[in-house]
Amino acid sequence: MMEWFQELSSFQKTYWIITGISTLIFIIVLISTFVGADADDVGDVDAEIDADTGAGFQFFTLKNLVAFFTIFGWSGISSIDAGNSKPLTIIISLLCGLVMMAVMAAMFYYISKLTSSGTLKMKNALNSIGEVYLTVGAKRSKIGKVQVKVQGALRELEALTDYDEDLTQGNVIKVIEVTNNGILIIEPQK
After folding, report:
1. Predicted structure pTM score
2. Distance, CA of 181 to CA of 145 (rounded, Å)
3. Which is it for the CA torsion 144, 151, 178, 189, positive or negative?
4. Mapping DSSP to helix (H, G, I), strand (E, B) and coil, where does residue 183 land?
5. Distances from the Cα of 34 to the Cαs of 30, 86, 115, in angstroms?
6. Would you kindly state where each structural domain of the chain is located, as residue ranges?
7. Of the candidates 4, 18, 8, which has an alpha carbon nearest to the alpha carbon of residue 76?
8. Which CATH superfamily is domain 122-188 in?
9. Is the model's pLDDT at 185 over the cut of 50?
10. CA quadruple 28, 73, 68, 75: dihedral positive or negative?
11. Which tens digit of pLDDT belongs to each residue from 120-174?
12. Which of 55, 58, 86, 131 could lock 112 by a disulfide, CB 3.0 to 4.6 Å apart?
């Protein structure tokens, strides 16, 4: 193995060293991701392009840099083996590495957009049909509870009504308004 490495030109040695180190780090990051560790556990040095505190488009992250150097190295070795010149090999390596970084950054960006905050937005309850769970007093005399489907989940929420009679358990209702403090204003459905 050492004889083979000694026979390589310094240009080839440089590519093999970059490839070996980055592939080893890539494998470690890949294994740690599969066993549940995250890059935070291995010393994440992420920096966002626009210094935004949200989950923005992160181009310069540890994972992206490891992917860049891994693809840079392997595409360079392949280019050398194909007989390309040094300048062409460097250009091909850089382009392949940058494309890989862009693909990974875009992938993580769009994956982060798939997560939901879990915050219940009461305005999403407007016009929902539900059922009285605990009696709601007539003319806003007593806060009751209703079950309505909001943001894809059945929720038990506080409610008031302007209706002339109490709305008792089992009455079908419609949400017509949401107060500033998150109480539903309901009316019976007939």
Report:
1. 0.51
2. 15
3. negative
4. coil
5. 6, 37, 19
6. 8-114, 122-188
7. 18
8. Nucleic acid-binding proteins (2.40.50.140)
9. yes
10. negative
11. 888 889 999 999 999 999 999 999 999 999 988 899 999 999 999 999 999 999 9
12. 55
